[in-house]
Structure formats: structure tokens, C-alpha cells
Amino acid sequence: MKRSLSLLLCLSIAAGCAANNSTPTGGTGSSGSTGGTTKKLRVAVIPKGTTHVFWKSVHAGAEKAAKELGDVEILWKGPHLENDRDEQIKVVQDFVTNKVDAICLAPLDKQALVGVVNEAVDASIPVVIFDSALQDESKIVSYVATDNRKGGELAAKQMATALGGKGNVIILRYNAGSESTEQREEGFLEVLAKEYPEIKVISSNQYAGTTQEESLTKATEVLNKYKDEVNGIFAVCEPNAAGVIGALKETELTGKVKFIAFDPSEDLIRSMESGTCHGIVLQDPIMMGYESVKAAVNKIRRTATVEKRIGTGEFVATPENMKTEQMSKLLSPERFEK
Q1: For 226-236, what is each residue's pLDDT tens digit?
Q2: Residue 335 banded pLDDT, cuts 50, 70, 90
Q3: Which of 40-71 are b and which e, b meaning 16 or more Cβ less than 10 Å from the residue's Cβ?
């Protein structure tokens, strides 16, 4: 009996030791999984703001990618104002402190956000930049964006078409340090200068700001100043365009001045339907959010090679083509994602 009990005790101890030395089924590694168990990745997506239609569409694209990729959670947070660099820096720092698995960022300022992006990378958090570039891209995974210079060039060509190749135009700038809109502004001015000698830019140094209210004030001021000369106006982003719509009404220039915008809104779509907006340069914000998250996850899971630059396309909607399927989807992306 004693020998039997001793044998049973030894077998129990051996079994316990074997269990303790076995490979655990939990845990994670750099690839995002071990032992066949996939880690749920937390991807922070940080836009320039959260209120405009463009950013809401980016969010929809990010969620679409997360759903398709599986085991990915989107943490969506941006500054309240699209000129609050300090708040956006703090948002990034908070996500670094919380040790998210990746960050997708649309930087408000091409220089001001470089430092905090480097902090994230140094903490082993891969960073994908979208919409607007950083001055230093040496440490990022990828840059996902529209070719904004080309977008500005398309705006210039559409303006020239609307004006019949001659006239006086105004360009309303957005916010100093915003790389994406600076590229649009430069592309617009360059094409007009090179290809359309009979189109004169009579105002190109006015910044309309980051909100509809600021843009309304500035656009009204500039339009009143050049009321007897202006034939066309270009607004380089959605909040600026919203202000221009109101300013054209206040100055009684609606329909008299050719109006080209960048990025859609319900008011702009209605303006184009009524013939008072003569073209909208379009991006694909859903694709931008989708590709940004996909690039970040592919980098972590090592499931595919990530290109350093991922383009998402640029298009022009006009009163003539706005009802086509492609343009309808780009003009109202949120309707097609529901």
C-alpha cells in the first residue's frame, strides 16, 4: 500500500511539472499573435478635427478596415479646433502613454508634430501619417493621402473652364503650417501662372482660418474689397468653402462669381445643383481612413509589405457629372457607408 501511494504521488508531481513547463496559450508578440491566439490591436486614429464631413468619412473608412481585418479596435480622438496644435500633441502623447499598438495621425502642423511622432516611434508604436504630411517622414510607416498639389492643379483647370480662360480670381488660404492645404494653394497658383496668362490672381495672401465663422468674416472682407473686380474664388477646404457660400450671399455675388471648392458638404452640393458652385475637388476620405489602418495593422502583423506612399486619388465634381455613380459616392460618402 505504501509503495502504491508513493508511486501515485510521484506521478502527480511529474504531471504538475509538465504542466508548468508547457507553452502558454496566451500572450502576444511583435507579430500580433502567439500560439495561434490573435491579439486584439488598438489603433488610435487622430484627425485634425472631428466635426466636418471629411473627418467623419475618414472615421467610417477606419472602422471598415478594422472590421475586415478582425481583432482591431479603433480609438478615435482629435482636437476640438483644427488649429489647436497643442491639443493634438497632447492627444498623441496620451495614446503613447496608454501604449496603443499603432497610431494613424493627420498632423495639424508639418513641423510641430514631428517631435511627438518621434516619441511614439521611440516607444515602439508604429505611426502612419494621413491627409497631411510631416516635414520629417524618416520614422513613419507610410504616408496615406491625396496628391494635394494635383488637387490644386485640378481646381485651377476647373476655374479656367468656368471663366472661359480669363478673369480675376481670389484664393482663400487655410491655416499656416497645414501641409495639405499649402500644396493645394501652390498647385492652384502654379497652374494659373503657367497655363492661363489671361487669368489674374488679385488676392492670394489671405488666411480664412479653420472654422466656418472665421472664413465667413474673412471671405466677406476680401469679396467686398474686390467686389467690382473679382470673377472667381477658390476655397481650399470644407470650412473655408462653407464661409464663402455665406460671404457670396452677403455681398450679393452668388452666381456672379465663379466658385470652386475643395471637399464636399451638403451646402456645397446644393450650391452646385443650383449652379452657384462651379466645381468641387474631391478626395476619397473613406479610402484614406481604410488604407491608413490597413497599413498600420499590416506593419504590426507583418502580413503584407507596406508602401511608403499610398495615394487615394483626386477627382473633380461638376454640375455636369455630379449625378454619376462615382461622383455621387465621393460627394456623399457617408450615405454609401450606412
Answers
A1: 999 999 999 99
A2: low
A3: ebebbbbbbbbbbbbbbbbbbbbbbbbeebee
According to DSSP, residue 215 is labeled: H
Residues 73, 44: Cα–Cα separation, whole Å: 8
Q: Which domains does the chain have, with CATH numbers?
A: 39-146+284-312 (3.40.50.2300), 148-282 (3.40.50.2300)
Long-range pairs for 263-267: beta carbons < 8 A, 24 or more residues apart: 263/52, 263/53, 263/54, 263/237, 263/238, 264/53, 264/238, 264/317, 264/330, 264/331, 264/332, 265/52, 265/53, 265/238, 265/241, 266/53, 267/242
Given pLDDT bands bounded at 50, 70 and 90, which one contains residue 199? very high
What angle in degrees, to the nearest 10, is found between the helix axes of 266-273 and 238-250? 50
- What pTM, to 2 d.p., does this model score? 0.81
Quick: pLDDT tens for 26-36.
Answer: 333 334 443 44
Look at residue 234 and give its three-state secondary structure. strand
Q: What is the DSSP string of 80-127?
A: SSTT-HHHHHHHHHHHHHTT-SEEEE--SSTTTTHHHHHHHHHTT--E
Given a contact cutoff of 8 angstroms between Cβ atoms, the answer to whether 260 and 162 are in contact is: yes
CB atoms closer than 10 angstroms to residue 195: 13
Q: Are strands 33-34 and 37-38 parallel, antiparallel or unpaired?
A: antiparallel
Side chain identity, residue 59: H
